[in-house]
Fold these 2 entries.
Entry 1:
Amino acid sequence: MLYSTIFKKASMAISGLFLIIFLLQHFAINITSVFSGNLFNQLSHFMGTNPLVQFVLQPILIFGVIFHFVMGFVLDIINKRARGRRYKIYKGNSNASWVSRNMIISGSTVLAFLVLHFYDFWIPEMDYKYVKFLPENPDRYFEELVHKFEDITRVVLYVISFFFLALHLSHGFASSFQTMGFNNKYTVLVKSFGKLYAFGIPFGFAFIAIYHYLNH
Amino acid sequence: MQLKLKIWRQKNGKSKGKFETYYLNDVSPDMSFLEMMDVLNENLMLKGIDPIAFDHDCREGICGSCSMFINGEAHGPDRLVTTCQLHMRKFKDGDTIYVEPFRAKPFPVIKDLVVDRSSFDRIQHAGGFISVNTSGNTQDANATPIEKEDADNAFDAATCIGCGACVATCKNASAMLFVSAKVSQYSLLPQGKVEATNRVLNMVKQMDEEGFGNCTNTGACEVECPKGISLENIARMNREYLLANLKG
Ligand code: HEM
Ligand code: SF4
Ligand code: FES
């Protein structure tokens, strides 16, 4: 059963939905940096030092991300093989959106972004706390954040990535409900809310990056 | 109208196959696509060339045999039709038309445009039925009241003709629309509920064994399906499948 197509799909949907929930929480904390550096510091300090977050939730998150993209690549390879010989002419556009057909491209862009993002924030953070064992300074987070977004290249890369994240989610959100067997009279709502989330949250993240670039 | 046809020719399952170019004059816009193919074949035979093999039977959109991938779309550019119901007026004078067989690993080419869709039959055999005692005490189906909505949905699902356009169209060569239609047409009715759990497990298992790809909800199948089978069936099948596994 674990190897069935539907189960693999369901695991994609569950990990995707999990990431969607995580993203909301991530955004809720980051947006505070726009109006209160202090609040942002407090929240980051809590997230960065709370053992439940650090040693339970964080590993789950990392597992979720890795699982999601590895499974995404595996399924993509299986699916390409299922076609066999390719069509000479294939009008994908005539019956399905570009976004829905190219989740692997939008996903890979997000993956490339995650590598950069980990290099920017996560690795220095791990280094600070668990390698160098520097003393915790609850006020360092806001400064570190602002400092990163002084660099225009980084801001541009982040904004481009958020755009692809929006594309990924604009199909992924509603798609995961369909996968989990949820398709009924509320599906219109799921689709509208999905679009709102898919563009709203990445737009918000882009706003934060640009805001700090302009106000440093 | 005058047409340039680029048609896939392949001697048998083992040979490589390639596109051949044919020209056809005086095609009437009122012809169906298959009639146009008939005329082309007559011309070929007069020239001593092996006619193009293609599947057809009812020629009225109910048997599902006429599998052709025309200009990049299953059953061509029209919607809610099979190839036999597609008319030449959908094309323009001077058009180049590419005709390929339905392509999927589980649909191997037999000859030219004819593919072997017996993988669909095997999926049906795995669970697409209800077991009824036929020794004389069979209950009249009409004696069981069924809600209108369920009856309608079951009937809509049952209109699937097993043509395989969903597989041919899907970028993942997934058979989920077909299988979900076959699962739904039974599981929505009380007569089909008895074996519903095993049915969905067995049919999905067979579908996977045949080597169809994984659905990614692009929705292309629903658009290309000649019978307008809805994605709701796929959601229903996923729901039943996941629940069936929870039940064990
Ligand atoms: C790390 C890089 C990522 C890669 C390579 C990736 C790749 C993929 C692929 C290939 C699919 C399957 C396409 C489909 O079923 O339609 C998919 C689906 C999905 N992804 Fe991602 N993804 C990534 C990151 C993310 C992130 C960060 C989120 C959420 C914040 C996310 C949310 C989703 C959702 C909700 C689905 C839909 C699942 C479904 O259709 O059932 N993905 N992803
Ligand atoms: S679901 Fe539609 S496209 Fe697929 S086999 Fe049935 S009738 Fe053909
Ligand atoms: S020949 Fe029967 S559906 Fe086209």
Entry 2:
Amino acid sequence: MDKPIYLDNAATTPTDPAVVEAMLPWFSARYGNPSAIYSLGAQAKEGVTLAREAVAGTLNAQAREIYFTAGGTEADNWALIATAQAYAHKGRHIITSAVEHHAVLHTCQYLEKQGFSVTYVGVDDQGVIRLDELRAALRPDTILISVMFANNEIGTLQPIAQIGQIAREAGVLFHTDAVQAYGHLPIDVQALGVDLLSASGHKFRGPKGVGFLYARDGVKLPSFLHGGAQERARRAGTENVPGIVGLGAAAQLAQASMAWRAETETGLRDYLIERVEREIPHCRLNGHRTQRLPGNVNFSFRFIEGESMLIMLDQAGICASSGSACTSGSLDPSHVLLAIGLPHEIAHGSLRLTLSAENTREELDYVVDRLKEIVQRLRQMSPLYEDFCRKQERS
Amino acid sequence: MYSEKVMDHFTNPRNMGELPDASGVGTVGNAKCGDIMRIYLDIDDQGVIRDCKFKTFGCGAAVATSSMATELVKGKTIQEAMALTNQAVMEALDGLPPVKVHCSLLAEEAVHAALWDYAQKHGVQIPGLKPPKADIGEGEEDEEG
Ligand SMILES: Cc1ncc(COP(=O)(O)O)c(C=O)c1O
């Protein structure tokens, strides 16, 4: 394998060459500060404005509702902390889900330390939020519901329109972390009743370190970084002009190619799932079978551990990820896998493969062939498998 | 993240497998935390470890430390095996990342657990040997996933 087979597109994507091309002039010839009044500055301001309009167009939003940030994490932090601050007089209760990204979960924990109370609504065994639990969690002092659009580990899509409806009826703001969905699935903030939305450039072939927060007109959004008047005085600091231009270009490219990419990825995804389920015993597909990101595949393989799998896949030239403890830097496996009810030892044996439309069936065939060997080899090494086989023989 | 030695022992584990007629078998760790090690010892009448095998469920470091531990006790006397420390296993592997140090402790415990099993079965006293901790989380392994 000269070039690795990249199956970790949920972690990050390569920047599209056309996006790099669009960004380059903004590092050199068009280096002006957008706040400056001479034409070099005005040109940069124009670049940022066009990107803002492009992004707004993809969401059915207005340009002034888009605030550029340094990525998805910042947009999540901002959405939660700002609404908590701005609406604390109305109440100090926030509802979120048990399967959010740490950018949301850890921000909620931070807000709990600041005296807010947070309800973490559970999910079913496929990772879909329990809407009855969500409804029951609403209180007179609830100010915000924050539920992700699509899960980054198991790919499950949440019923965003229904949650938007629930929020609307309750008079509560609705934020969605759409970092995994934006640029991959159509999103209409009007139709979905979304008030705040986070996205990140590098998940849809844009550059890293740039993202945006959509905040509906009329939603109070206190400034997050204090200083100059950039981003309508909400997010101070000289704009990351090349990054913002790149994000805008990536958003437009993603929008234009969305339909065929989703179709291609779904085909590849289901092919991969089918081969694994048919050829590797004792595996379990994690997440919803159809309400799922087009490129997401997540399996647990019993009796083996994820990190070992990743090292062996890497040796075979395959980039993947896992929710095992060893890859999370803690003793517990992924909170998402535990939330869908997996026992710890099965959660440790999880493998996430996230595809792009550039992957081919030939690549996936190679991956499944290697994966079969790797799982078999690790099971031969596993005392859990040995015990399992003994038990089978006895019964 | 891992040293070349760790990668070597992970990729080409030494003494991986089972000993059907082992004189002592020890299993330590916990499926919940993601590491289980089992060590098989074949000990002769002179108290020398003639053969040693391992099976491990766990990360790269868990496999490498068990592999190295078997290398370090094979051919040794019980007393020499008793003196094996996690430090020695780590040094032999040219070090481990800080978050993986517990794997080397587990390897040391696995050897001791296998010696304990041997001592119990053969009615021998091994000075300094304590009973292994019983925290193997295999209970939930019954139903099909
Ligand atoms: C669902 C979700 N939210 C937030 C983030 C954080 O985005 P960023 O890396 O741009 O800060 C990620 C990226 O891993 C994600 O998958």
